[in-house]
Design brief:
242 residues, mainly alpha, 13 helices
Length: 242
């Protein structure tokens, strides 16, 4: 879906850009190829952001974030529809198959975007308050990591050769908790730096992000093995991921 969206946006941009440049060459002046009444204006997510940063026009940040609202809506709807897929309904209670942790994280992330827009539009909020929903987001992630450390859960993840699970239960716990510690450090340092509670270089503030990238690179070099060989369920999972 994302690839199709990018392809459509690229085609539209190329078409109207060529039209604007061609008209500028024939009339002696360049005309902006995107009139304000253009039906594809919501797709031009970069233009409101550019104008806002350059102070050419005053846009509400909620409008600038419109593409993110669309993606958030799609994500939340997909998480709500997931238990209603036939493969999950066949297992019994659909609510038992709901990804509650993912759903709560998605809602907390949307709330973070709302508080961020309010702050950028001039609301009297500290950056710590703005990052509050993100702390709740991370708390859910930490809870999920702690649940994965339980021996019964570790047995499952070790069978599928999840990255970090091949070094024993203790190594698996260290692998997960180190990532959570890096994420918590990142959000706390960024919020404190923006609130001017400390005066540190941004290289130091963002240093946990470098560690997170190392974990991501390590995980990308490892491949988990699926235990389920049901072709029908795999087909549903592939269709959902697309």
């Amino acid at each position: 879906m994302l690839l199709l969206y990018k392809h459509m946006l690229r085609n539209v941009h190329d078409a109207v850009s060529y039209a604007g440049v061609h008209q500028g060459a024939t009339t002696g002046r360049t005309r902006h190829p995107w009139p304000s009444s253009c039906p594809f204006l919501p797709l031009r997510c970069g233009d409101p952001l550019r104008r806002q940063v350059q102070n050419d026009e005053k846009w509400l940040w909620g409008l600038v974030f419109t593409p993110l609202w669309v993606l958030d809506t799609i994500l939340v709807l997909m998480l709500c529809i997931w238990p209603l897929l036939p493969v999950n309904v066949a297992r019994g209670d659909p609510l038992s198959n709901c990804k509650w942790d993912w759903l709560f994280q998605a809602l907390f992330f949307v709330l973070f975007q709302v508080t961020l827009c309010l702050k950028l539009d001039g609301a009297d909020l500290s950056w710590t308050a703005v990052f509050g929903p993100l702390f709740a987001f991370q708390a859910v992630s930490t809870g999920r990591a702690l649940h994965k450390i339980i021996p019964t859960q570790y047995e499952h993840w070790s069978k599928v050769k999840k990255p970090g699970s091949t070094c024993g239960n203790v190594g698996w716990a260290i692998y997960l908790l180190m990532q959570e510690a890096l994420w918590w450090s990142l959000w706390l340092l960024v919020s404190m730096r923006l609130d001017r509670q400390m005066d540190m270089s941004w290289w130091v503030v963002l240093s946990p992000l470098f560690g997170i990238c190392v974990f991501w690179f390590y995980a990308s070099t490892r491949t988990a093995y699926a235990l389920n060989n049901d072709p029908e369920e795999k087909a549903y999972e592939q269709a959902f991921s697309r």
